[in-house]
Amino acid sequence: MFAQRYHKDKTVLDAARERVSFVFDQFETITVSVSGGKDSTVLAHLAMVEAHRRGRRINLFFLDEEAMYQSSIDQIEYLMDLYPENVNKLWLQIEFRLTNATSFDEGQLICWEAGKHKEWMRSKKAYAIQHRMWSLESQTVRDRNKGFGFYDAIENFERCYTNTAFLVGLRAAGESPNRWRAVVKNPISINGHRVFWGSPKGANFTLYPMYDWNTSDVWRYIYDEKLRYSKIYDFQLKKGYPLNEMRVSSLIHERSFKSLCDLPEFEPKTYARLCKRIKGIALAQETGKNAKLFRARKLPKNFKSWIAYRDFLLQTYPDPSKKDIFVRRFDRQLNNEYVARQQCRQLICNDYENNLSVENKPDPREELIRYYEEVL
Description:
The protein is of the alpha/beta class.
């Protein structure tokens, strides 16, 4: 039985099917973003079943980051071939930049870089979109220092369409309260209908039909529908990963070190190719769970405080242009041990994009000590 219920006769599955049906009623063009993960697998299947029932076609969109689990690639292929008469395959394999958090010498991976096809993780798909669908004159870039990146590729792709529903398998239930608020706080109007599970995106809409599903609901659907899923989840379960930490996303971003540590065991061939493709992988794999390095949980013994360690890391940061980004950011934040430890992690992970956001607040330990001094 699905965990979330609206009343005695409706589950989150019933609600999601109603939302997907609503989207088909309102839009001629529907694009589902898929990543190879469990959530996008369920959403894609819900949309394909409805498309099959109506005799319509939808787009399955996948932006290939190259540095991915082979199991994720296998899952995308499975989804795109599940309902071939109802699916347009939009597998995008173009050149764009990803932050490589494992190396300061090679701080970015240029996915599918021209002229380096012999170094790619794998060959491109024959049916993939291998060139940008938009003109360079209309192209937008968020961060000129970084160059054309992941979100730039998605945003420019979406602007090629108008009056299109882009379905995303984002879930807010069971996640942080901030994610829930971000999804539901600003209802939108679609042809006079008030919708709490979406947001406008230029001439299009981004919609989240599964926003109120829990993790258990996702796995129950996969089981009931006998769907294939990435086998990485099985490996992670056997290794004792908590359910909320099971991820099959990119292998080189700031939150991927735990995945890299286990990659040689999960997919040894992928690990071998990744070591040849990008610098820093072997070190990250060996030390990703070390409390003194990428996790920044334990202070190195040569330093008496996180503030001193942060200042050392800033002083020795190898890229002057990126160093200024950190300096300006840290100047706006509190100067205490709690904040400094988080700043150390950003510096170690080369997170100049601020993806590992710092919780800028007074040190909770100092507050606790002050409280007990007053009470005792």
